[in-house]
Please model this.
Amino acid sequence: MSAHVFVPTHELPLPLVDAIVVRALEEDLGAGDVTTESCVPEDQNAIAHGVARKDVVVCGLPVAARVFAAIDPGVRFTVKVEEGAAVKGGSVLFVAEGRARALLTAERVALNLIQRMSGISTATRRYVAALPAGTKTRITDTRKTTPGLRLLERYAVRKGGGHNHRNDLGSAVLIKDNHIIAAGGVRAAIESARARAPHTSKIECEVDKLDQLEEALAAGADIVLLDNMDTATVEEAVRRTRGRALLEASGGLTLERIPELARAGVDAISVGALTHSTPAADISLDFVSDGPKSGRRA
Model:
């Protein structure tokens, strides 16, 4: 497969990916690559393997390919596994062939992005796997993403089997605790949003007490976010709601709580940790041989 690894544009718009790649390369190559340029011959070619050091759910191969192509369109990038595949440590994820200087210069940015994305997809898969069989509950991300990388991180959540929450502040109405204080209460905030927001927008309101839940339901909230509630309180919230609104559990949720919250009957569990504190996956780029000299593509 060429450096332009196919991925549906609705999943990962490549023009937007390229803008991220350009910014990342500018950050890393402001003064050039003095090490590579000083010790690697210009006509030296190489073959390198992208290798998972530990078990991982792979994500970001198309992005890594764009990094290599941005440095040198002549690099040949061959994927060895599918996006979203769960692979064992030691697996070769991709092979990059071409000028050694290009491979070395692209290495860190390509790895930074694929490690970040694969870490998120791996963590998301664990949360999704914790849901009881047959549950209606979704695992979703939040807007707690790395500035500038939201597009890639939310794609990684999907590849891990999760779902995306609202993408940005204009995507939906989500009334949080500070909105409630500023607006003068739960009912006032919801009624104001209903009067002023586009008719296509659903209205979600965060609550942390059951009396606030009752107020939100009476005001006609479409979705209620149950913030930092223990499981018994969530169960009571589900009983009181009786399907009148979608219910989302959120707030410092650990993997261990996912089964009990799903059994309680919430429609979604949003987990900020998927994107704000998930460790990067352990993936490396290993040179395995020299290619032919004189600028011929390996």
In short: The longest strand covers residues 283-291. The two ends are 14 Å apart (CA to CA). DSSP finds eleven helices and twelve strands in the chain.
